[in-house]
From TrEMBL:
Keywords: Membrane, Transmembrane, Transmembrane helix. It comes from the Bacteria. This is DUF3325 domain-containing protein. The chain crosses the membrane at residues 45-63, 75-93.
Length: 116
């Protein structure tokens, strides 16, 4: 059951990351007016860097049950719980709780910790 929780947390993380990336491109940057253009590109790439990082975290959560190292499992879960927990709190604060992202990231944290 622990392994399944970690793997489900990883899959949910990847889904949330993909939604984050797609909504960023289609909703946020489609309407954003950022000048100069090089700053627009920089901000867009930083946005997508978090998407790629979350996907990487999801892959680690999926792979953790197959690692034969309990310390590796522990550090993956602790690190990802901190990253996604901070992201959830920041999202909830910045959107005043009106965005579903913080809820999904909170579920990821809960599942990962339960799977530890």
């Amino acid at each position: 059951m622990r392994d399944l929780l970690l793997q489900c947390a990883g899959v949910l993380t990847i889904i949330v990351a993909l939604i984050h990336g797609i909504l960023g491109e289609t909703k946020v940057f489609a309407r954003a007016r950022i000048e100069p253009e090089r700053l627009r590109t920089l901000i867009r790439l930083v946005w997508q860097a978090s998407t790629v990082a979350w996907i990487g975290g999801g892959v680690l959560l999926i792979a953790a049950p197959w690692m034969e190292s309990e310390p590796a499992r522990r550090w993956i879960v602790v690190t990802m719980a901190c990253v996604f927990g901070f992201s959830a709190v920041a999202n909830a604060w910045a959107t005043r709780g009106r965005h579903f992202g913080w809820m999904m990231l909170s579920v990821v944290v809960a599942m990962a910790v339960a799977g530890y």
